[in-house]
Specification:
This protein has about 375 residues and is α+β, with helices and mostly antiparallel strands. It folds into two domains: about 230 residues, Peroxisomal Thiolase, Chain A, domain 1, CATH 3.40.47.10; about 150 residues, 3-Layer(aba) Sandwich (Peroxisomal Thiolase, Chain A, domain 1). The protein is built from eleven helices and 18 strands. It starts with a strand and ends with a strand.
């Protein structure tokens, strides 16, 4: 029985900042961002947007094509949770009007947890093949102003429906796994922005790549040449190129950038979307490549701290009948450009408090955060 990603949909935020604007105000050559990082713009939420509103928008579009009554679980993966106790999936459950007999939980392990959610969903469907599971990867990446990570901010969500007999990608059994305790990136409870050791993070990412690949190859007897395209977690798209080069050196195999090129267009425009990054790469690959039917994709998922997984999936024959690139294009083109001063003000006024407040109505998306009342987040449809 085939199990995998049956359908997917995406969402991003109301605002966008062009990295040329950031470069100008920092007195930096824009090519440091466009070429050095491989990034052009990044999404930024309005005051009435967060991981829940983006997830609700993407999920609503997805479920318009399917029977929501078949969903038995909502697995919400995020690195930028809105509550230390209540799962973001519970807020989402209410906004979508899902039936009460649904399991809703939130998963965390930096940028990796979306893959954990996907694999949990695949395993659950193997036991109950008549069910469907909604997997959410939704994040807002915020870094301190004037920090090295500032140009790699971003926001976005990929919602995936996991089922038997998938329309898009069958997830193959067995994965290569890697866990090691390393402080390359972390965000304590009392901080709204993370702490990053950039060089250590790069080293940990590349070490995890080769370790997870070796584990997968040993378990499956898989050769690197058995993979037709590679998809990577992309905190910035240049990282994917470094990862492919490291994998080529490690395996002694020439691996052309053509193997990843079509997966990077959305991440270049969105910035870092943490848990969603790998799945925006998948979305871009499916949208940009007309000859993927029957091809094997190699997925590399990484979450700082660090946990990584290498797994594979096979693209289904009629996948082109079940993709909606026009929806992504609409999401990207509808963003409102920020001036530098507007960006700074928006970043500075980020609401990290649970005290009572109301948000101005800014987003045109179907759902918004209306504010907080007595420490309780309030969402509404519009």
């Amino acid at each position: 029985m085939k199990i995998g990603i049956h359908d997917l949909e995406v969402a991003t935020s109301h605002y966008v900042l062009d990295l040329d604007t950031l470069a100008e105000h920092h007195g930096i050559d824009p090519n440091k961002f466009r070429i050095g990082l491989g990034q052009d713009t990044f999404s930024m939420p309005a005051p009435d947007e967060d991981i829940v509103t983006m997830a609700a928008e993407a999920s609503q579009a997805l479920l318009e094509r399917h029977d929501a009554g078949a969903i038995r679980q909502v697995l919400f993966a995020t690195e930028s949770s809105v509550d230390q106790s209540k799962a973001a999936g519970v807020y989402l459950h209410e906004l979508l009007g899902l039936p009460a007999n649904v399991r809703s939980v939130e998963l965390k392990q930096a940028c990796y947890s979306g893959t954990a959610a996907l694999q949990m969903a695949v395993n659950a469907i193997a036991r109950y093949p008549e069910e469907q599971i909604l997997v959410i990867t939704s994040d807002v990446a915020r870094y301190a102003l004037d920090s090295g990570g500032e140009p790699t901010q971003g926001a976005g969500c990929v919602a995936m429906l996991v089922s038997a007999n998938p329309n898009l990608v069958e997830i193959e059994p067995d994965s290569g796994l890697h866990t090691t305790d390393v402080n390359d990136f972390w965000r304590p409870n009392d901080s709204t922005t993370p702490y990053v050791d950039g060089q250590l993070s790069l080293d940990a990412y590349l070490d995890a790549t080769t370790s997870a690949w070796d584990d997968l190859a040993a378990r499956r007897g898989l050769a690197i040449t058995d993979v037709d395209r590679f998809l990577h977690h992309q905190p910035f798209t240049k990282m994917a190129r470094k990862q492919l080069a490291a994998l080529a050196e490690h395996t002694g195999t020439e691996l052309s950038d053509e193997l990843i090129e079509e997966s990077m267009s959305y991440n270049r425009a969105l910035g870092n979307t943490y848990t969603a990054s790998l799945y925006f790469a998948l979305t871009a690959q499916l949208h940009n490549n007309t000859e993927l039917a029957g091809k094997r994709l190699g997925f590399f998922s990484y979450g700082s701290g660090a946990v990584a997984e290498f797994f594979t999936g096979v693209v289904q024959e009629n996948y082109r009948d079940h993709i909606y690139p026009q929806n992504v294009e609409k999401q990207l083109t509808n963003r409102v450009a920020l001036t530098y001063d507007q960006y700074r003000e928006l970043h500075h006024n980020f609401a990290a408090t649970s005290q009572t407040f109301s948000t101005p109505q800014t987003t045109h998306a179907p759902f918004r955060l209306s504010g907080v009342t007595e420490h309780q987040r309030r969402y509404e449809a519009q």
